[in-house]
Amino acid sequence: MKEDKMKASLFCIKCMDDTIHEVTYVDNILYEIRCEVCSLSDSRGADIQRELYLNYMERVFSKPKRFKNEAGDNLPHFLFSLPYRVMSKPFRTYKEIKDILKYKRKI
Questions:
Q1: Cβ contact 19:35 at 8 Å
Q2: SS3 track for the chain
Q3: pLDDT at 15 > cutoff 60
Q4: Rounded Cα–Cα distance for residues 57 and 86 (Å)
Q5: Distance, CA of 26 to CA of 95 (rounded, Å)
Q6: Residue partners of 70: CB distance under 8 A and separation at least 6
Q7: Whole-prediction pTM value?
Q8: In 77-94, which positions are buried (b, 16+ CB within 10 angstroms) versus exposed (e)?
Q9: What is the pLDDT of residues 54-99, one digit of tens each?
Q10: Using an 8 Å Cβ cutoff, are 29 and 39 in contact?
Q11: Contacts 24+ apart (CB under 8 A), 29-36
């Protein structure tokens, strides 16, 4: 999961002024906005977990097509990288599911 944080000047309803806010994106999906002056935050909570899960499932279902395209584009590279990918896939899948569930606990 790629988590990006950036700063932005936004109007804070608690401070009643334009202040610096920390904006957090998870996989290019807006997750949280937090005021750096008063620490008022607004997060998407359960919505983000659902979107991350749907993105993950979309990639799972499109994998056979992507696999076929990759094999057709460069067969020698595909065959050379296949054993490593088959061995590492369960670990990568576990890590991604664990990351999705991490955002549920942040609520």
A1: yes
A2: CCEEEEEEEEEECCCCEEEEEEEEEECCEEEEEEECCCCCEEECCHHHHHHHHHHHHHHHHHHHHHHHHHHHHCHHHHHHHHHHHHHHHHHHHHHHHHHHHHHHHCC
A3: yes
A4: 19
A5: 15
A6: 78
A7: 0.65
A8: eeeeeeeeeeeeeeeeee
A9: 888 898 899 889 888 988 888 888 888 888 888 988 898 898 888 8
A10: no
A11: 31/3, 31/103, 35/10, 36/7
One-letter amino acid of 49: Q
- Which single residue is written with the structure tokens 């909570």? 45
Q: Which of 4, 103, 90, 96 is nearest to 44 (CA)?
A: 103
Structure tokens belonging to residue 1? 């999961």
Phi-psi region of 50 (alpha: psi -120 to 50; beta: other; left: phi over 0): alpha
Tokens coding 39: 């620490």
